From TrEMBL:
The active site is at D185. Keywords: Membrane, Transmembrane, Transmembrane helix. This is Sigma-E processing peptidase SpoIIGA. It comes from the Bacteria. The lineage of its organism: Bacteria, Bacillati, Bacillota, Bacilli, Bacillales. It comes from Cohnella lubricantis. The keyword Membrane applies.
C-alpha cells in the first residue's frame, strides 16, 4: 500500500483545524486563527510522523493524550484545570462525533455489502476496519458530520436556554384554576396604561368553557373591543366576568395600535421547577386566540416583572 505523507499531513491539518474551530464554537471561545493553525499543524505532524518513524511508544495512549493537551494549550491557553478539562472533553466529543458521522455516512453511501466484510484482525489481535474512500467522499462525509454536530449542539443549547426561562404558572379566576407552563419574556413590557399593572399572556383555549361561547376561537381574527361590545350583559353568559374584563392598548409588529382582551384574576402563582411559588394579585391576564408555542412547550407568556424576581425564599403575596 502506497501512503503519501503529504496528503496525510494536509488531510489531518484540515481535520484537526475543523475540530478545533468546532470546539471553540461549542465552548463560545474566539481564539486567534494563527494559534488554531499552529495547533492543527502539531496534530498533522504527529499523524504524518506515524508513517515516517517506527517508534511504537510515540503512539501509545499516554502520548496521544499529551499531544491532545499540547494542541489545546496551544490553541486556547490554560486558564484553569476545570477549563482545560472541559476543553478536553469537548475536543474528544467533537472528534468522536465527527468520526462516527464519517463512518455512518460512508456505510450509507457505499454499495450494499456485508458490513463485516471490511473488518479483519491484525497479527497482534487488533481490529482493522478498511475503508477505501476517495478523498472527495471523505471530505464530503466529514463536512456533513461537522455540520450535523454543530446543528445538534446549537439546537441543544437553544433548548437549554429556553428551559431556563420556563416556569410553572397557575391562574385562578372566579374560583377556576388553570395550570400550564409559561415562558418568561424579558422583552414583554406590556402594562395597563392607567394602573401600570403588568400584563401576562395566556392561551384563551385554556378558558374556553369560562369565556362566552366562541370567544376563544374568535379572538384570533376579531378585534377584542367588538367582542366586548357585543356582550349581552343581561344574560348569564359571560356576565360573571363582566367586571373583570379589560381592554389593553398595545402596538403590534406592524406598528398599528390594537386592543387586547385581558381579565383580572383572583391570583397568579409562578414558580420555576423545584422552587417555591410566588403569588401575585396585581396582574392582568391577556387572552391570545392562537397558539403561543408551536410545539406546545408553553402556553403562557410571563411578564418579566413576575418571572424574573425569584430569590431563595418565596415572597409574600402582593396585593392589588
Amino acid at each position: 500500500m502506497i501512503v503519501y505523507v503529504d496528503m496525510v499531513f494536509l488531510t489531518n491539518l484540515a481535520v484537526d483545524g475543523t475540530v478545533l474551530l468546532t470546539t471553540a464554537k461549542v465552548r463560545r471561545l474566539q481564539p486567534k486563527r494563527r494559534r488554531i493553525a499552529l495547533s492543527a499543524g502539531m496534530g498533522a505532524v504527529y499523524a504524518a510522523g506515524m508513517f515516517m518513524a517506527d517508534v511504537p511508544y510515540l503512539y501509545s495512549f499516554a502520548v496521544k493524550v499529551l499531544v491532545s493537551l499540547a494542541m489545546l494549550l496551544c490553541a486556547f491557553g490554560y486558564g484553569s484545570p476545570l477549563r482545560l478539562a472541559r476543553l478536553m472533553g469537548t475536543f474528544y466529543l467533537v472528534s468522536f462525533a465527527t468520526l462516527g458521522g464519517v463512518l455512518g455516512l460512508t456505510f450509507l453511501l457505499r454499495q450494499s455489502r456485508a458490513p463485516w466484510s471490511d473488518l479483519s484482525l491484525s497479527p497482534d489481535g487488533g481490529l482493522l476496519l478498511e475503508l477505501p474512500l476517495q478523498f472527495l467522499l471523505l471530505a464530503v462525509c466529514f463536512a456533513l458530520s461537522v455540520w450535523l454536530f454543530r446543528g445538534a449542539s446549537a439546537s441543544a443549547e437553544r433548548t437549554g436556554q429556553l428551559d431556563s426561562l420556563i416556569v410553572n404558572v397557575a391562574v385562578t379566576i372566579g374560583g377556576e384554576t388553570r395550570e400550564c407552563r409559561g415562558l418568561v419574556d424579558t422583552g414583554n413590557r406590556l402594562y395597563d396604561p392607567l394602573t401600570r399593572i403588568p400584563v401576562m399572556m395566556m392561551e384563551a383555549s385554556l378558558w374556553k368553557e369560562q369565556l362566552p361561547s366562541g370567544w376563544a376561537e374568535r379572538l384570533k381574527d376579531e378585534p377584542a373591543d367588538s367582542l366586548v361590545a357585543g356582550l349581552d350583559h343581561d344574560s348569564s353568559e359571560g356576565y360573571a366576568w363582566g367586571d373583570r374584563l379589560r381592554l389593553i392598548p398595545y402596538r403590534g409588529v406592524n406598528g398599528n395600535t390594537r386592543l387586547l382582551l385581558a381579565i383580572k384574576p383572583d391570583s397568579v402563582s409562578i414558580s420555576p421547577s423545584g422552587a417555591p411559588s410566588r403569588h401575585y394579585k396585581r396582574v392582568l391576564i391577556g387572552m391570545d386566540g392562537g397558539t403561543l408555542s408551536p410545539d406546545g412547550s408553553y402556553r403562557a407568556i410571563v411578564h418579566p416583572d413576575l418571572g424574573m424576581s425569584f430569590d431563595a425564599e418565596a415572597a409574600p403575596s402582593q396585593t392589588a
